[in-house]
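Deliverable D5.2: sample structural annotation.
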Amino acid sequence: MNKYKIAIIVAGIDQKYQSSILHGIQSASTECSLDFYVFASFSGIMDNVRHDTGELNIFKLPDFNDFDGAVLLTNTIDYQYAVNDILRRIKSAKIPAVCIDNDINGLFHIGIDNKNAMREITEHFIKVHGFTKFNYISGPANNSESADRLDAFLEVLKENNIEIDKNRIYYGDFRAPSGKAAIEYFRKNTPYMPQAIICANDVMAAAAINRLYEDGFKVPSEIAVSGFDNTFNNHNLRIELTSVERPLVLSGQLAAKMLYNHFNEIPQNRSIILNMSTRFTESCGCHDSVIQDYKGYKELNIINYNRVETYNSYMTIFNQLSCKLHGCSTFNEYIECLKKFVVHIDPEEFYFCLCDNWHYESVDQNGIMKKEEVPTYYTENMLVPIAYCHGKFYDKESINKKQLVPDITRNKSAGNIYYFLPLHFGERCLGYMAIGNCKVSLHNEMFHSWCITINNSLENIRKLMCLNYAINKLKSLYTQDSFSGIYNRHGFVQATNDIFKSCTKEHRNIMLMFIDLDGLKFINDTYGHDVGDTAIRSIADVLCRSCTKNEIYCRFGGDEFIVFAADYTDSDAECLTQKIENNISAENEKLNNSFVLSASTGYIIGIPKKGDDLFKFVTEADKIMYETKRKKKLSNYLKS
């Protein structure tokens, strides 16, 4: 049986809706001979557009031409432009794709009848409980499922001649904070609280109930509440929640099955609409439906205890990791720290992939960092400082972006699931993590917090590296002659200081040579300052080629250069002088200028005494050099 490579696009894997569908997909992956590559973001949570830009960048990573098919949960992505780009690339790649809940023309579809389910909930509240005063907590206005549920709610109210003020509809994001914020909004912007609050999902409903109790309202005796999706355990909330039960796990299983049928040319419908069932229980006032299952409560207590134990265990590891990562001062230290955590979470595979430009700012032609648009893309070449596979770390310097992960001996059987998470800081793209077949569940807020810690600590290391670069560059500017590239006077003093002190203390010889470019004024006046600058740089190049025995040299100023060396003899100094003259001759042959490059030299050798200054020797060497120069004539360095 052929094994197929399937891309999954999803945001918010820490939520029950997404998690349930992914579990369904994974449960059917082996049977359907599919490997799934989940490209997941945590966008739409932090209320920060720059952060979301970095999160959404993970959806640009896959080249859909390299996949056999796709499963899309585009209803979980809050940014339509990102959804449009994904759909455009899917259609361009001409691969089969299953869209869960959003019905996209030309793609397979698995959905539910949101309208009928919400109609049944709303009609129950009106006809069974006699409610006429409602508030509504919606999902995002631009989400198709959210819109269908709200439309159905409003239609039933209209059919029953019940009016609702616009302030009694709150638009959330399907997450718990929206449920709490909705209650606070209603208390502030409506004159009285309603008889019932209908919510577009269970997560917001549960948070709303908790907030109502905090404000002194009893549910359902004072305010009834309903949810949607039935993503909570019956006994796991303050009271049992009236909701709509939908087969989320089945949705994932059917998505895998639809792709399997397509690959094997098994006839099937393009769209499947799943049945839903309403559960009318405690939160709307249907007390007769409350499940009195004490055995179930006991089992739930055991499950919750184990969950808390696991959570606490991994929180300890997580806190240790967070503390250690933020305490790292070098990139190598950071990587070694992260490797230890990888072993703790025990995945079959883990790859830490960084853009090849992740660690530096752009620099101008002088090497100075410049401010420009922050990179928001993955580079073609990705660095791989961590490659972990089946209990072993491998050395993989880099991969091409299209590979996604290094080519290491991996699980060849079908049914694997790999998660790709973005590494970024704000909109700056740093890279991505790839995690394969992890024994620890990634579908929780703890893992989301871990991702945030990784991103923030990685940015700290990046900034430290940029800061060190800036410090080194400033140090270079202080000690290096930017014109010739060799030491300036400050750099020369720093480089020779300790050696000079040691020679003074140990009564060792030092040599100081003074070199002066001949005829620079004539060259400037005759040929221009650009030619004069070339002559100065040429002398610097000559010194670089001539000083090969630990000599220290610099541009002293203008057309003057000095060379320092310890433990030199007259023979050594004469040899260096000759090398300089030979290299000047070679430079003349190479440059083919309209002038002859020439320099006058003079040196002094002596043992410095306590209290002597290095520049005492510079002065003496300058005098000797001047005597040499005085004897020269213009004809010695001008072409005939």
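Annotation notes: Residues 600 and 631 are 10 Å apart (CA to CA). The chain has a mean pLDDT of 89.
The annotation will be released with the project's public dataset once the embargo ends.
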